[in-house]
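Researcher: Here's the sequence for the chain we discussed earlier.
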Amino acid sequence: EMLIDDLNNTIDGWIKALKHYSFIQLCTKPSPESWSPGQMYLHLVSDTNFYIRQIKTCISSNDNAMEEASPFAKKMFLNNDFPDAIIEGDPSNAQIPQPVSKEHLMGLMLNLKNEINAVAILISTTACKGKTKHPGFNYFSAEEWLQFADMHFRHHLRQKKRIDDFFKIDKYA
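Model: Thanks. This is the structure I predict for it:
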């Protein structure tokens, strides 16, 4: 239950922050090799939807229940955080489009929050303990996918801070 509370708080922070960007800012890259804020939001939505699909698979069977996360992933789960480093993501990340509108992004974030809360309820009611394979960290349980989602959102807060500094956005405004 604490996992979903933490994740809700994190997502709420991202939703609140979205209100501080103009649509022009949402589509502006601070540098040619970085994402715009809108692309960062779309990345978070896309990846979290992938995690939700993984959770649904985990809670519907006991497949791979004896498999484990990699030692690196176990350390991240123990620390409840990604390492403080810029991580080179999947090459497909370069193809993330710009957002259609600020309202569309807001709708995606609110829908994502509803979806993640729905699967959190399913996690708490299932007897299944399956696991699915993460592309880089071996096998995660449903609970680990949920924790990973929160860690992933928080990891991108560092990137968001760099973007906000570029736009001179006061996070306390």
